Amino acid sequence: MTTSQQQRAGRRGTGTSTDDPAAAEAVFLDATLSLLAPLGVAAGDVVVDVGPGAGTAAVALATAVGEHGRVYAVDLDPVLLEATMAAARRAGVDDRVHPVLHDVEDGVPPVPEAADAVWSSWCVHHTRDWEAAVRALVGMLRPGGRLCLAEGGLPTRCLPWDAGIGRPGLEIRLDEAHDRHFRQWFFGRSGARRPGRGWDEILVRAGLTDVTTFSTLVDIPAPLSDEVRGVVLAELAARVGRAQRFLSEEDAAAWARLLDPEDDAWLGHRADLGLLTARTGFRGRRPGP
């Protein structure tokens, strides 16, 4: 979600990291499909995608449910719902994708039928109360329905340990600064509740059984294609922008050079830029037949 979209949605800090979420979702498509697989979506299913972004997962789910199934895309931002529907139209599955404008913090989304499966990727951690949000998602499931959250994983690594600018370990310190930014943002909101437990236990406490955890590796080694390089640079710039106030002057200056296309040190010139991370999913089932 861009800054202007955040302002329209009335929720600062949520949504996608860059101005081109579709490009980022394309880079992580294989990982997304791997995390979707444990949902076991079949033809004719009713599925809910909470926080659909640019619509990549919604399109994959709509393809899986077939012409007799339905996918409900739930988001608090009409701009992202429009992007999801545009992606569905391009894929020829818009007849089975239905947008639902709703903020999960307001309770169970108003989906008109019980869901066989609910999917949410990198969305719930933006809510003030993770357990309440998960309960809202569980509330959409039919007995025996499945929920899968994609949350957490491992920090992304794109640079060598020594980038040749500033002190070595620049990306590690960016992780720390970004974590400080997120903590301040998260707890700076009225009503924010400390989770105090992991996602798997949150799913159990929400009433799900057969809870499992699984991860998928994203490993795109150097040299990167132009498309992947563009996403990596955009994501780094977004992270640096959010963490700026928590960076040392030395690190901020180093990042300014590395992200400046007019500087000789610009990361876009480097052949050793890569993309390595892991994304984690948490799956559970609502008790019943």
TrEMBL record:
Entry keyword Hydrolase: no
UniProt biased composition (Polar residues): 1-19
InterPro entries per record: Methyltransf_25 (IPR041698), SAM-dependent_MTases_sf (IPR029063)
Molecular-function GO term, any one: methyltransferase activity
GO biological process, one term: methylation
Region feature Disordered, mapped onto this chain: 1-21
SUPFAM superfamilies for this protein: S-adenosyl-L-methionine-dependent methyltransferases
CDD domains to which the protein is assigned, alphabetical: AdoMet_MTases (cd02440)
Domain Methyltransferase: 47-145
Cleavable signal peptide: none
Keywords: Methyltransferase, Transferase
Domain of life from the UniProt record: Bacteria
Protein name (database record): Methyltransferase domain-containing protein
Organism from which the protein derives: Nocardia pulmonis
Lineage: Bacteria, Bacillati, Actinomycetota, Actinomycetes, Mycobacteriales
